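User: Predict the complex.
Assistant: Input components as received:
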Amino acid sequence: MILFWLILIPFLGGMLCWHSERWGEQAPRWIALATMLFVLAVSVVLWAGGDFSAYGTGERPWLLEWRVPWIPRFGIEIHLALDGLSLILIALTGFLGALAVLCSWKEIVERVGFFHLNLLFVLGGVVGVFLALDLLLFFLFWEVMLVPMYFLIALWGHSGSPGQTRIRAATRFFIYTQASGLLMLVAILALVFVHYTSSGEITFSYDALLNADVPDNLSFWIMLGFFIAFAVKLPVVPFHGWLPDAHAQAPTAGSVDLAGILLKTAAYGMLRFAIPLFPEQSQAFAPVAMALGVVGIIYGAVLACGQQDIKRLIAYASISHMGFVLIAVYSGSELAIQGAIVLMVAHAFSSAALFILSGQLFERIHTRDMRRMGGLWGRIPVLPGVTLFFLAASLGMPATANFLGEFMVLFGTFRSAPVVVVIASAGLVLGAIYSLLMMQRVHFGREQQPGLLAGPDVREYGMMLALIGLTLAVGLNPQPLLDTTASMVRPVADLFMAGPVRAGGMN
Amino acid sequence: MLTLIDLVGLLPLLIVASTAVLVMLGVAWRRHHGGTAAVTVSGLALALASLPLASAAPSSPPLMIFDGLALMGSALVLVSGLFIAAMSHGYLAGYRGPREEFYLLLLCAVTGALGLVASNHLATLFISLELLSMPLYGMVAYSFRTERSLEAGIKYLILSAAATAFLLFGMALIYARTGHLELTALAAGVAGSPDPWILGGAALLLVGLGFKLSIIPFHQWTPDVYQGGLAPATTVLATVSKLAVFLVLLRLVLVAPVFGSGWLLGLISLLALLSMFGGNLLALFQPDLKRLLGYSSIAHMGYLLVVVIVGGPLALETTGVYLFTYIVATMGAFGVIMHVSGTGSGEDASGLHHYRGLFWHSPWLAALLTLSMLSLAGIPLTAGFFGKFYIIALGVEGSRWWLVGGIVIGSVIGLFYYLRVIVTLYLREPGMQQAVADAGRGRVEKLALLIVAVSILLLGIYPVPFIDWVAGLAWAARLL
Amino acid sequence: MTGIPMEHGLILAVILFSLGLAGLMLRRSMLFVLMSLEVMLNAAALAFVVGSTAWNQPEGQAMFLLVITLAAAEASVGLALMIQLYQRFRSLELHEVSRMRG
Amino acid sequence: MELGFYLSGLVAVLATVGLISGSSPVHAVVYLIVSLIAVALVFFALGAPFAGALEIIVYAGAIMVLFVFVVMMLNLRPEAKRDPLWQRPGYWLGPSLLALVLLVALVALIGDGQAGMTIDGELITARDIGLTLFGPWLIVVELAAILLLAALVTASHVGRRNKPRGNRNRGGTR
Amino acid sequence: MMMAATLLSFLLPLAGAIVLGFSGGRLGPRASAAIGVGSVGLAALATAWALLTFSGDSQGFTLWTWVSVGEFQPTMGVVVDRLSLVMMSIITGVGFLIHLFAVWYMVGDAGITRFYAWMNLFVFSMLVLVLADNLLLLFLGWEGVGLCSYGLIGYYYQNEANGRAAFKAFIVTRTGDVFLALGLFLIFVELGTLDIGLVLEQAPRVWAEGSVTANLAALLVLGGALGKSAQVPLHTWLPDAMAGPTPVSALIHAATMVTAGVYLIARLNGLFLLAPDVMWLVGIIGALSLLLAAFAALAQTDIKRVLAYSTMSQIGYMFLALGVGAFDAAIFHLMTHAFFKALLFLSAGAVIISCHHEQDLSRLGGLWRKLPVAYAGFLAGGASLVALPLVTAGFFSKDEILWQAMASGHYGLFAAGLTGAVLTGLYTVRLILGIFHGQPRSDHARHPRPGTSPLRHHLPLAILAVLSTFVGAWLYPGLEVVFPPRPDDATNAGHTLFQFLATGAVLAGLALAGWLFLARRRWLDAKVGRGLGARLWILFNRAWGFDALFDRTLVRPWQTLVRVLRFDFINLGMNLPAVIARLCNAGLVRSQDGQLRTYAKVMVFGATVILVGLVMTQGGGA
């Protein structure tokens, strides 16, 4: 039941935010903050009290589970389940959600209530994605988060040129994800009906479909349907077109959520659905996926170097980083997948921080164009240093979580695909190039205008300290995190490795 | 010959028809807008209430059939009619001229639709279809003093009559070949290899019905009539007319095996694909909301044709779910249009610019329109999602991958313009044109809109009772 | 004399139907268009009667009756609309009513 | 009998051609009446005298009178200057070809499906038809009645003359 | 006890860095300096304490397990042995002196807190690098020093060029680091561990000597070392790195960080011994670097660039030593080099500050009277650099290297070393003469402000000067026990002869320099002014054109690529459906022209097509 509340609370909070607008401008902010902190607190309590070594076996497959029938006609259930990975990601959602509320504290001054409604709906949808186990329910949440995100971008985005660009960006975001989502729906339905023909049971249940007997010719296409849906969201080149625009136009909170959480739903989906449902096909597909990952790493990095807009730069950098995640997921190595999880968490922190920083910068100098910056190191206290920290994190500086994630990915992948690792490693250099280019253009060089700008206030400082602390904490001692997810990752890796055998007799 | 039991089965139709007569008498005696509306609404409600009774009676009047499909169709027709009647009152309040005839025409149209969904004979099919269309000419052109309404009326009349001629000729061909007009007998008569006459007749029939469904290439009247017609009339077109005609098409295909021939199915597939793509592509940049909904309906009928092509046990259920979700969403959209415009202010407020920033002065209307658009787009948590779910499921089950692809691509294109509408509602920029003020409409309208909004949401979140109901009806229809 | 083949009756109907259709597409005056429609409906009615006589059944002629009913109804509504068209534009040209497009 | 069929058929076709190609409204109405009467003769030839009678009474009598009435009311004259577009093949070639192709297709279709049935002119009486109509078809007749009601209401509403004189002007200038 | 001392030695600088870093500018310059210098000073004391309590065996302990996934179990652990102690001593000892000097050097500079924060963080990272018991932790330090180097090179951020230099330094070393990282991947996959001790233990078991994998692993590690230690071909960043404050150059780009590569190879000696081909390559690269850099040093006009090339050249010596298997000689030279090069840099810094930030040789001169302390520092450091026999530390260490090269039979390398010694003499003399002798060539040089603070200015110079003499050489503990046996252990024959040879080379170099720069100055200037001499001068000045080469082969193509790809062609391709949809829309909308005739035609057309299709496809059958 607590799982159900985890999903419901953000939605209820969102409604309340909308309503509370009449009580004053601050009310929605506080309510939203409280809601997200609640989610965070619940997940932390679950984390602290959970025993992560015991689940994952047949006896107790999930840490927490809740299922009630929803649409019995099709065997659709509201089936929520929590394991280590979900828990980590939900905690992340709560944390970044709170950050998103905080970072828009001063940025959003119009239609505050409705803004927070959308924000919380997105987050509620994301929590749903991380918890849903029934395939249709998963798809439902997958789609539900799009609409409010669309509003966030379209209504509160940065109006670069008059109005239209942000709407275009939002539309593009929506269409990309929706199109891929429909493919996933088709794939889900195909899977369900194939299972129905072979077993006579119509169900969308994860457990049942895990053992579905799918003819070979069809299973590859179904797998591809899932993969494309996740690939668009991750995003994998060439499906990345929505991301830079969406990031560039979204309000800070939107970017934080997009980069910090929404992209992670894709990797989560791969780990939870695409691979366990189709281990053999995934294995066969792995070379392609890895190649796409490598292309993403390099291509994203090259494009990041060419950007003038800070947020676009970070967006392309995200594409590059997610390439590592893709490689890891399809390497099938436990170490790499664990690394991918660390990298996801790390990327959530660092990209969120960078977006928040660029938002703070925008509040101060009202531009995101790096050609109009320069020499800010002397003009703004503290923030440049923080920026450098997170850029260092983003380029994979050891001691930060990003380093650990990337390196675990590469260590884990090297055994099975050394060539991929060699090429992907070039991403380490390229990452350094774009990160430092940004530093160079923004904070180094001549001051374009004289005069000191305001330093961070307590809110901004607090957010940054928390993010720095977490980045370092995960970077230096990720073991608690890894222990949490180990029971989830190991079976996936085993499944992947044992892919060809499985068809024979494991089930 | 009609027996008493048959009359019970015909009860809804009879009630609606007598209400029409009552309204006519009322008009002759003394004109009263509110009274007429009240009589209409209560007549329709009574008919709806009599449905369970009618369905319980084992009636089989000649030329008609009362099976699950008919019951489903009747219910949908009556619900739509009820909604339109309720909304018309406020809409027509500002109309200068006689208003009562509109209700009379509406009731006639509903009668036709009720007959259509239950027709088991080409004669009933034909006369009901005409009974459905004839009042619509009047309703579309009701406000004939505005140019658009007149234009829409003329276009609809002429093209519809031409389509009727095609339909009739098709029927005549089939009749000439088989000597039967009754569907079941006809089906028996054409058993065996498809004959060119039958195929030709079926194709011509398809032209006639396709016109009413606005299937490409018989679609071109749709946007113009949607845009020009009075909003309630357009709503009838979009809901009652579409669903009744579709159900009868489905019945034809299910009953007569000739429609199951590969050639015709291929043809319908092609038309379906054309409609999906064409409708959506046409709507892309459409600045007029009613017109846009017209184009959108083309696409939706394209999706719905998948049901006809795939058939099978799931088809009826899919039809019910899809039609209802589509109708609810359409009612939501047109409800808002009706609420915002009114003939008192000349032409309908149908340009998108009328709706700019609607959210900021009437949030509930905007929310309803948003919900409707999302539902039409098939986004989860709205009714439309389950429609889309069903239709894709059906396509997948039937392994009609081309059609599934068409639905997916069509939906994606569709998103573009639905989103365009939605975002317009929320824009607030300096110097923007103020939308038409929300005229103080009556409580009935508000209640109707509220019910629609709640249904869209409820069907999106917990559709189980509805699905079970439809599945039950579909089961019943299959038995017959 | 063995009677008239049914095909011939139908072909006559088809010819009339096509002529009506041609009139529908060719003429710009609403009066002519309405008359063309009458021709088309009449052709369909003819086809029914042909069927009816070939099968020696009354049903086809009952259909014919319905078609006439419809033709009458449609003619009345169409003429009423035409009068409005004339009143507005002082012309029966259908291209006058082409404001809505796109 | 056969001769009657083919002759009146020919007349009907020719009259229809005259209808669609003429320019005078009055002539057109007359052509149409001729065509309808010819079709009525066809009905007689086919052995459907009741249909033929109705064709003359209802169609040629009632409906056409309506047309004539409207033509008179609006005081329509032959289009004084022939439509210049009419001379351009681009204008009429497409539709005509289309109709022609459709005709050919339909004829081919009918030719393909040889029913092999002939019409021997056996009479179907008005009684048979009446029994059908007021027996099982009763409901259809009722529906047709409502259809006529709807048409009546529509025609009476739409055919309404503009009440105040200024109303039309306002409409015209808008 | 010893572990506590070790811990303190690197935690103190870390604490200093954290306090300074998070102070947010609230600390004054004094407090910053106190914390910055104090923490390193205390670290130096802690190191001394560790030295005293060191038992002679290597000792390690683990703070916590960093990551534990399957076999992958790198720890947060340190190991202390003689080698790391030597390194620690250099880092904290020399580091402390440099910090102290920086107080004088950096006085009045805005952003001083940032400076000390970076410096402390650097000391911490460097200590982690040398203390790490596993390669991943080593990598942490390795990257950490790179980042600190970046931050400090770009310390004067207002100047675009500094930013570029910092950027270049980071990217070039990062390129090397990627090779190191790949090396780590390979080692982990092959040996199943990253623990240095275990790696050295496992390597001979898993890999045969000279096997491809072993060579590959060693090669990849070498790649990392080349980047960090500025050896050919990844050396181009070092001269530019002189954009940072001079204490930074002294600490990072002379004494410690740049020698990390030497440390790494020495640390992984077992691995390299399995890869003789790579060992040979190390020697070659060392020789190449020392010669190239020495020539380049001859033709620089900027004091610090001369010293930078000199550093590169000296590290070339160390690599040469590594290449011939004389690991302890390399470390020995590393130590003495740290002393004398730090001294040279600090002295240069003293000159630069005194002469109002003038560091162009052609604008200095005649300063020896006015800046006696700096002059003394230069003399002591320079003497050690040219390895003046017997009295300098440099002599002992360089002698060791050359001897090992010869004794191991690498005569080519030995010859290169000798040539280098001659060249070293040349450029050192040129440098000292240029700064301190002759006529002052600018107002800045005419009116210097000599350094006056005895504690912050004189003391570091004095201590380093002393360490640059043979005293420094005495301090060397001898690392024979740490490393595998040296090639010369078998025989000592010919050592005396060799020493004469080496001494001769040094003296010859000095003599040549004296002759050239004092007696034939004018002739030299004329030669350099035009013709072949000028071309050579340019070639040397531009350090053999590596920058231009890289610019043309890497940087420009890269920039072009970035510019071309900026518009995201793949994405534009994905927009194609949208374009198609737009076109279709335009076409279809045109069909919706409002004309009833058109509508009728389209409808009839549809019906006709259907019927014609029907007749065509079905007609024949019936």
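The radius of gyration of chain B is 21 Å.
Let me know if you want any component modeled separately.
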